[in-house]
Amino acid sequence: MTLFDLNGKTAVITGASRGIGEAIARRMAEHGANVVISSRKADACDKVTDDINATYAGRALTVPCNIGDKAQLQNLVDTSRQHFGKIDILVCNAAVNPYFGSSMDCPDDAFDKIMNSNVKSNHWLSNMVLPEMRTRKDGVIIVISSIGGLKGSAMLGTYSISKAADFQLVRNLAVEHGEYNIRANAIAPGLIQTYFAKALWDNPDILEQSTRTTPLRRIGQPDEIAGAAVFLASEAGAYTNGQQLVIDGGQTIT
Predict the structure, then answer these.
(1) Is 159 a catalytic residue?
(2) pTM across the whole model
(3) Which of 226, 191, 222, 221 is CA-nearest to residue 206?
(4) Which of these is catalytic: 56, 159, 180, 239?
(5) CATH number of the domain that 49 lies in?
(6) Which tens digit of pLDDT belongs to each residue from 145-187?
(7) Are 141 and 183 in contact (CB under 8 A)?
């Protein structure tokens, strides 16, 4: 077995129809994994699934899911398990941010939606896959957090709170389930060129301002996060547990 070999593994990836989730799915399939492509819209998922299957026949499956709905999350797990036989890797990538502004003015419904989608859904989904991982004494959980969880924010405060909570979630999972050879880690991207972050890079002036204090002086690409996910899911990351891996071009060191 090579360090980054994922042959025989099955990965469930939320928010996988585009951006970071799509990049992770493509790279995990490239390294041998079966991948479950999930997001709210089946047609968007099918585009990624069909493209992966065109290269790696039978390796990708679409299972639409709204992460805010517990029953749909359970269906995601059940359908994935029925199709591929097991779930070895869970990547909690999907997230929302319906509010931009001071936390003081954040409406209760927006606060609840952010916490439910960015934290509670990850908690639910992890607990749905953990029993089989504990029985098998093998499993990997990866949560895509953000460098927003490492610092305060005047305009993204509620979102940042949710991302900080994700760091604690993986620490708790690591402590509770590490004895069963289950590893839980978070990836904290900086500014990545995705649709989710479009407001911060679509305008050249805003992009220049956003990257001015980043030592690499540029925005990151989704594929530059995918490699870290493959590392954490494979034997290369076998002794990495309960950590937050920051991938931000150096932004947080300045």
Answers:
(1) yes
(2) 0.97
(3) 191
(4) 159
(5) 3.40.50.720
(6) 999 999 999 989 999 999 999 999 999 999 999 999 999 999 9
(7) yes
